[in-house]
């Protein structure tokens, strides 16, 4: 009798465990970033996705490593970081990455202190600082996360060579800029970025496009009244919610259900109050990387 009861309890526990979805970790970025906000937004409209747990990171560069090293099941990543890992680093593991959802475009924010001018004894005025992208030549550019890769790719494609200074995160990069330890900061983030809206005393520097850049980046404009009275031209790269090409039936079904729900709820993500404005750019039609099916 006791054995029968014990066996029944064990079977009940086993069935309950089997019915409970496994926890899947999702690499996003900083708690105030676009990736984190959009992940939370999907969780609001797809309430059945409670099995997804956010993991804060430094951004795309860390995210792709976490995904490739099987430390997370999903990761928000810039598509140029994926392509650089494939074409420049020639990492064969990238071939196993798939796009669960194609997302918004993220703009390059190039920030610098306002230029200064001085006049010599002959009355000639000399302006120093970073006013244009070409002014970066020979200068120090701070970047962190996936922005490091973008800084390298854009430098190579434009022929403007500069020293990339690796930063821990956004606060340390801005602190280094204000302290004169770097001449500019290059950050890839979907606008409007909360931390950029909080800046003062800095300039947004235009980032021009060219035929080479057009293969990966699209023209865009930045709108930050706190930094510029008018829009500032720049370029942008599409981001994706990436996963690995998982074959396990249960895991595959969870991922496909999440994908289907997000796609079906796109109008809610675009129109419900409080959702990140970047959802308005998403159409789930442009896939810069193979789709998870």
TrEMBL record:
Keyword list, A-Z: Signal
Superkingdom of the source species: Bacteria
Endpoints of the signal sequence: 1-18
Keyword Signal part of the UniProt annotation: yes
InterPro entries for this protein: TRAP_TAXI
Pfam families on file: NMT1_3
Protein's recorded name: TAXI family TRAP transporter solute-binding subunit
UniProt organism field: Deinococcus oregonensis
């Amino acid at each position: 009798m006791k054995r029968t009861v014990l066996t029944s309890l064990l079977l009940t526990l086993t069935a309950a465990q089997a019915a409970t979805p496994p926890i899947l970790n999702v690499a996003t970025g900083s708690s105030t970033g676009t990736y984190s906000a959009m992940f939370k937004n999907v969780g609001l409209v797809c309430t059945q996705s409670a099995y997804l747990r956010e993991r804060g990171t430094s951004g795309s560069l860390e995210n792709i490593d976490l995904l490739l090293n099987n430390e997370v099941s999903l990761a928000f990543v810039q598509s140029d970081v994926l392509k650089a890992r494939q074409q420049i680093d020639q990492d064969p593991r990238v071939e196993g990455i798939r796009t669960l959802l194609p997302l918004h475009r993220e703009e390059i924010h190039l920030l610098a202190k306002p230029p200064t001018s001085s006049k010599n004894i002959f009355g000639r005025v000399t302006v120093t600082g970073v006013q244009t992208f070409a002014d970066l030549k020979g200068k120090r550019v701070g970047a962190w996360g996936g922005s490091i890769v973008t800084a390298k790719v854009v430098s190579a494609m434009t022929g403007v060579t500069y020293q990339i200074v690796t930063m821990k995160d956004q606060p340390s990069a801005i602190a280094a800029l204000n302290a004169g330890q770097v001449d500019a900061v290059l950050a890839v983030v979907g606008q409007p970025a909360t931390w950029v809206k909080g800046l003062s005393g800095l300039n947004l520097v235009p980032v021009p496009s060219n035929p080479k850049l057009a293969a990966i980046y699209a023209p865009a404009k930045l709108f930050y009244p706190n930094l510029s009275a008018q829009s500032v031209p720049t370029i942008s790269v599409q981001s994706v919610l990436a996963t690995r090409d998982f074959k396990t039936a249960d895991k595959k079904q969870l991922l496909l259900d999440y994908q289907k729900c997000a796609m079906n709820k796109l109008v809610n993500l675009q129109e419900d109050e409080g959702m990140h404005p970047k959802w308005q750019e998403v159409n789930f039609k442009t896939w810069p990387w193979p789709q998870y099916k």
